[in-house]
Amino acid sequence: MSDMDDFLPGAPLTINWAVTNKCNFKCSHCYSRNDPSDELDINVLFKCIEGVAKAGVLSINFGGGEPLLRKDLMEIAKFSSQNSMRVSMNSNGFLIDSGKAAELKDSGFSKVGISIDSHMPDKHDNFRGIKGSYERAVKAISCLSEAGIETSISTVICKINHNDVDALIEFAIKNKVKNLNFHNFKCSGLGYSNKDKLDLTAEEWRDFYLHALKAKHKTEDIDISLDDPVIALLGANKNDSMVKGSICGKLSLNIKSNGDITPCGFIPMVIGSIIKDDLKDLWINSPVLERMRKKTPKGKCVTCDHYTECLGGCTARAIALTGDMNNPDPHCWRHES
Amino acid sequence: MKIFRNPDVMWREEDEYKSRAYEGLEKGEDVEKIGTSVLYLNGMMLSLNILGTEIWKRCEGSMLDEIVSELAGIFDVEPIVLKKDAEAFIAELKEKGYVRYG
Hints:
The complex is a heterodimer. Chain A is α/β, with parallel strands linked by helices. Chain A has helices at residues 42-55, 73-82, 98-106, 121-128, 133-146, 165-174, 190-193, 195-198, 202-218, 279-285, 287-293, 307-310, 315-322, and strands spanning 14-18, 59-63, 86-91, 109-115, 150-156, 179-183, 223-226, 252-255, 260-262, 272-273. The longest helix of chain A has 17 residues, at 202-218. Chain B is α+β, with helices and mostly antiparallel strands. In chain B, the strands form two sheets. In chain B, strands 5-1-6 form a three-stranded antiparallel beta sheet. In chain B, strands 2-3-4 form a three-stranded antiparallel beta sheet. The A-B interface holds A 1-4, 7, 9-10, 13-14, 56, 58-59, 86, 179, 223, 225, 227, 240-243, 247, 251 and B 10-12, 14-17, 32-35, 38, 40, 42-49, 52, 89, 92.
């Protein structure tokens, strides 16, 4: 396994593709439902998907908005899997019953992640803004499993659930999902407007990760993922991946509903268009991606022993809260030495 | 013991790096640090060099000795050294969940 210091894959390995911004939910941390961008016509999308496959992308994860609100999602997914890419989706699960799960399976979906933010129905419903959403999400997981689709639960960690790690794990095991993904809270879109109400303090993030990492190591029944680069401060991830810091722009890219390409869904910096630009060329030559891959430490990062592992933490958060990708991730709890 | 790739692993060869590695190999250069393929599992990437890639491509139910015997025809390495390297490499892939024994 080779040294990764200078290794950049020739194209993204995976694409997060927001096929629509429409949503049937009213989540208070949403980054996309107020985005007025257009949706691409299916024939334009097919051409773009062909280009993405030709570039060598291995998988597409459809998102939004709620991707199932796009009437032609099944055709889009089928076309993608016929072009040899693995297809997955993030959904709130509200529209998934047995019939829809079977359709998803037939369209080539191998994995579907369902957003559930609490093991308590009322808490989840309040956070997502729709009564009955918990029940529908749980039902969706069971329908998807019955249809032979791998399932995961995606939980956005914030004020409402950061003390519920054990209960969330127990809930995920009970519902027989393969993965439980704890997502760090991003201050983008409504997440920015509601950050004072929802985001944790740096110390609360430290305590959450200490607890979650301990639970992850003693839990064998389920894979738990923590996608936050700041956990490198706790010695996590050291040998797990050859990519340090955020994976955005190093392994993955985001495509918006209108075809604009951004490093990730939470970074509003458009680096090109999937309709007009050559994906491989953008991937290699985008000045924004280059800056993200070779960040220059600032502030407390300059003297931090962990910088080589976390590379300043989550770039999206640094940009959203400080305006500079090189600034330390505001979730980092380490004090300046 | 047969060796199988984990079907959850997505992977591809990196054409440009691969050409560079084979060109270097022909010139007798050290190409060990050139990644010629990427493996992607659960959001994590591994990059394999030219030897690693050729071993990986053969993890489709082959035995270690079969893999080594095939690779001995491609790489100018003592079979005993090749076997030791391949064994250690496959054990690492197994530990990381990229292959299984059957």
